[in-house]
Amino acid sequence: MEQNLILYTIIGMSFITLLIKIIPALLVSNYKIPDFLNKILEFVPIAVLSSMVIQFIIIDEGKINLSPTNEFIWASLPTLIVAILFKSLFITIVVGLMSIIVLRFSVF
User: Fold this and answer.
1) 103: Cβ–Cβ under 8 A, 6 or more apart, which residues?
2) Which residues of the chain carry a pLDDT beneath 50?
3) Do residues 59 and 81 both lie within one domain?
4) Does the model's pTM come out above 0.70?
5) Residue 53 — φ and ψ, nearest 5°?
6) Burial class (CB in 10 A: 0-12, 13-18, 19+), 102
């Protein structure tokens, strides 16, 4: 019985998630969004991703950690430079991971 409940819950939540995405798309599909609103909406993914990344970098165990021993701050510096220079998500991720690995296994 418990496995059926889990299955029904997964199916129900998938259906609700699908509806949440389909209904707004159907409602606005016939309308043309003004250009100025499109320009504003271009920045939404960047703002959301930035807030998530910054939060991950500076918050440690529920507290803000801006100390020099915060390895995520140090790892974010070369990662940010590589992201700006190369504009490649793959290279940025590799540099970020390598930075953390080097910092974790060094004498820092």
Assistant:
1) 71, 74, 75
2) none
3) yes
4) no
5) -70, -45
6) middle
Element (H, E) at 60: strand 59-60
Same domain, 70 and 90: yes
Both 11 and 60 in one domain: the answer is no
Q: Burial-class residue 23 by CB neighbours within 10 Å (0-12, 13-18, 19+).
A: exposed
Q: Which amino acid is at 23?
A: I
E strand or H helix that includes residue 5: helix 2-28
Query: Closest Cα partner for 103 from 13, 60, 95?
Result: 95
Residues 43, 20 share a domain: no
